[in-house]
Amino acid sequence: MSENVFITEETIEGAEDGPLSGQTVAVKDNISTAGVRTTCGSEMLEEYVPPYDATAVSRLKEAGATIVGKANMDEFGMGTTTETSHFGATENPIAPGHVPGGSSGGSAAAVAAGEADLALGSDTGGSIRCPAAFCGVVGIKPTYGLVSRYGLVAYGNSLEQIGPFANSVEDAAALLDVIAGDDEHDATTRELPLENGASYADAATGDVDGLTIGVPTELLEGADEGVVETFWDAIANLEDQGAEYHEVSLPSVEHAVEAYYVIAMSEASSNLARFDGVRYGHDTDAEGNWNETFAQARKEGFGDEVKRRILLGTYALSAGYHDKYYKKAQDARAWVKQDFDEALEEADVLASPTMPVPPFERGESLEDPLQMYLADANTVPVNLADLPAVSVPAGETDDLPVGLQLVGPAFGEERLVRTASALE
Ligand code: GLN
Predict the structure, then answer these.
(1) 78 Cβ closer than 6 Å to some ligand 1 atom
(2) Which one of 161, 268, 311, 353 is at 20 to 30 Å from 408 when CA atoms are compared?
(3) 324 classed as catalytic
């Protein structure tokens, strides 16, 4: 058993048959499971047992899957290494001594270690793609609105989606088939954009003949040399199979990390306000007025990274600073979206390294949060633009896994599945 893959190991049986019968699934611990505690990796929710299933979980059960446990994660999804979890860090099962990536590190590690066939994670700014890349598995971040967020404990609700992990593109796509589609409990979902009878899994044909790939030069700048080399080898492989590539420019992405962190922290400061020890969360013995009791519960229940983000987010939204930070970040978001739309008019998909670096050594990134935020440079622009992306294993550098990220137009998941499967 790998270290700290699960926060809670508990079997939840699904229906007798269905498309996923016989398959085991790890579920990230910010996705609600009725009757099974859902901690978000936080002391705040150490004893929280949801009264209902997330829509993604009910669909897993209906599809016949067996849930084998609630996977470890950075506290409330805030991190890139799964080291901010209150329940201890997860080790990378295929690169010992290194982090599995985050925030869905337990989910990716479960699949990489063979402790589950499949897993669900959530991706606010890269939290599916980063751990997929670092653990050498496939991860899909769906278009905003393809998968219901009902029952996903919110961090940055305008950015995040639940999505699948698997050892192959086809299996990840089959899991996406189960969880995708409109849900009356989430008004941001829409009807499945698939033709009658088609499925995402069927799209894993590996056919890239005639496909055009745009490579945004900005997403290669400053990346590790070995990562860049592995990336170009993968592009050459796609060229050999009949795809063509050209370089494209996304000038706005220079501002994406700043914009992402302002928006994500602002939303987090509001979303996490409900954890006060009364409505939700950690109970405290503190005596005093309600202000003092709330403050004590939040002081005890939240870790450092979560507190940092609540403070910064509250600041960015406060009167007098709102226009300077939050509004500016929204303008940058619109610019990023426009850049992607333009690039995708001239290319079928965009490709880059998923992460600019190979997996960090354990403990390396905790001292310097800013360094950690910068590692999200290639993933966060996609969430700002609401687009779908996949991370697929591209090879190794110095025995460490490298992931290739493919980004497609909104609701273009079939195209991503087809392209990614050509690299297997
Ligand atoms: N690393 C990013 C963050 O900390 C992304 C996290 C995520 O996608 N949940 O916000």
Answers:
(1) yes
(2) 268
(3) no
CB 388 within 8 A of CB 142: yes
Integer Cα distance of 105 and 121 in angstroms: 9
DSSP 115: S
Q: Write the DSSP assignment of 248-300 as a string of letters.
A: E--GGGGGHHHHHHHHHHHHHHHHGGGBSSSSBS------SSHHHHHHHHHHH
Q: Is 266 a catalytic residue?
A: no
How many whole angstroms separate alpha carbon 274 and alpha carbon 155?
A: 12
Ligand 1 centroid to residue 78 C-alpha, Å = 5
Q: Are 148 and 31 in contact (CB under 8 A)?
A: no
Distance between Cα 376 and ligand 1 center (Å) = 8
Please work out, in degrees rounded to the nearest 5, the angle formed at the alpha carbon of residue 225 by the alpha carbons of 239 and 131: 80
In short, whether 103's Cβ falls inside 6 Å of ligand 1 is yes
CA distance 313 to 263: 8
* Cα–ligand 1 centroid distance for 283 (angstroms): 27
What confidence score (pLDDT) does residue 375 get? Answer: 94
* Ligand 1 mutation target, pool 72, 83, 124, most atoms within 8 A of CB: 124
Among 404, 405, 412, which residue's Cα sits nearest to residue 388? 412
pLDDT of res. 304: 96
**Distance between CA atoms of 33 and 24, rounded to whole angstroms?**
15
For residue 101, the model assigns a pLDDT of: 98
Neighbours of 266 (CB within 10 A): 24
Q: For residue 320, give the 3-state DSSP assignment.
A: coil
Instruction: Give residue 172's pLDDT.
Output: 98
Q: Give the DSSP per-residue string, 159-197.
A: T-EEEEEESSHHHHHHHHHHHBS-BTTBTT-----PPTT
Q: Which fold has domain 6-251+335-421?
A: Amidase signature (AS) enzymes (3.90.1300)
Please tell me the distance from the alpha carbon of residue 284 to that of residue 44, in angstroms, as a whole number.
10
The single-letter DSSP state of residue 5 is: -
Angle between helix 413-421 and helix 169-179 axes, rounded to 10 deg: 160
Low-confidence ranges of the chain (pLDDT < 70): 1-2
**CB 179 within 8 Å of CB 62:** no
> Residues of 392-416 as b/e, b for ≥16 C-beta within 10 angstroms?
bbbbebeebbbbbbbbbbbbbbbbb
